Amino acid sequence: MKKLAMVMMTAGIICLVYSGWNIWKGRQLQLSTLQQAKAMTNEVGNSVKEQGKYSSSKKIDKNIIGVLEIPRLEKELPIVEGTTPDNLEKGVGHYKTSALPGNKDQIVLSGHRDTMFRRFGEIKKGDTVTLKLKSGSYLYVVDHMKIVHADDRTIIHSTKPKEELVLTTCYPFHYVGNAPKRYIIYAYPKTTRRP
């Protein structure tokens, strides 16, 4: 019995260390991606460069396209091109088939509920979100939210000539495993009302 207890305790410690290592590694990757995104959009100040966390001499990941700011959550999140599992570990993923800001069509960004979009449910109607890209900053106002089934593919579609920002994540927020639904936030350019 003592040997079994020791084996179980050792296995538990190994699992905790492994999980902790993965969480730390993921946060470091996200921080690095955010710093590169800020550098790319000219938002990195001298203080970060002086700390040696990011140097302009380092190569910027070609998949990084910008920064998503969510004031309600006091968050700045890196935006990467694509929604592969590797990309979503780095930041918020931009669906390649959707538009980019300023192109008067639907922009779709997706993130994991337990990393990038933690506290996502706290966002309210009327809140603002900003997308900062090389081409400039784009301010959007949250208009409404909805919950859909995970298999619902009608969310992603052209909205030409109206620009629409769609933020998606898995739902319920505290679900363990593959969540059966998606939480969708719709936002529109500040100067535009809902179509």
UniProtKB/TrEMBL annotation:
Give one GO molecular function term. Answer: hydrolase activity
The yes or no answer to whether the keyword NADP is present is no
**Active site at which residues?**
H112 (proton donor/acceptor), C170 (acyl-thioester intermediate)
Q: Which Gene3D superfamilies does the protein's record reference?
A: Sortase
| CDD domains named in the record | Sortase_D_1 (cd05828)
Q: Which InterPro entries match?
A: Sortase, Sortase_D, Sortase_D_1, Sortase_dom-sf
User: Which UniProt key words apply to this protein?
Assistant: Hydrolase
Organism superkingdom: Bacteria
Q: What is this protein's name?
A: Class D sortase
